[in-house]
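Recap from last week: sequence in, structure out.
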Amino acid sequence: MTSIIDYVRSATTPLRSDLSPADALALACLTYVDCHALPGPRSTHGCLLRDVAQASSIPALFRHSSVTHSDRALLEAVGASPRFRGVRVRDAVTRIGVQPLAQFGALTFVDEAGARFVVFRGTDTTAVGWAEDAHFGLEFPTIAQRWAARYLDYAAGRGGGPLTVIGHSKGGNLALYAAASSPAVERVYAFDPLGFPASVVDDGFFRGIDGRMRIYVTADSWVSPLLPLPAPATAVASSWPGPLSHNPYSWLIEGSSLRRDLRPPSRSGAALGGLVGVLLRVRRRG
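Predicted structure tokens:
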């Protein structure tokens, strides 16, 4: 079984405007590394991933990492990988606050051909991040969604090559929301994203990016079934069972693609999504 770290270690061709689904997943995972802790990645000029990897012993880079993630191993792998080590990372941002309640992380990667990849971080291990997640079915847009749109506007305004937006979990939600407001986006990769209120999807908010969304979920996920998604999703295989399959480090890679999972969606995930829908309708009526 090939994991995302195995893929990074085996990839030998430099990334030059040829982003694959596996590449996009690797970049989505990298955003859980808090590059804002270093002066190079948070600057407008940025620095190369191989330079960030040399700082992998600094604990601040992983202060919000989940114990189930392999963030340090991935960072060290990209730093040594011919495909990723020459990629530039810049404009890294981390914002966590109670007033307003929001946990937000974003950065921009630029490959050796000038193609740009804006990546949004998913929920981290902070209490703020988990508390904020409860607002996604009740508010639209959320504070983090507004910040994501603002960040993407800034990144697009800097000019450069083709622009792709990427995110995992809540980061996938932010990627979809921000891209829907930006005509500059070529493609969006959302990995097991949190969805949106049904009224938002049904009213055509995402119509402008039809055909440009690439959404991947796991059959056993308890995250993507919670709220409606704006486009059909592809089910991918994970080495971990049940809701643990949400962990992107457990997803299986086949070549430069994600291995398909032909099983039907989990009944427990669908039931959980149905329960959330009922609770949201009751709350709105109240």
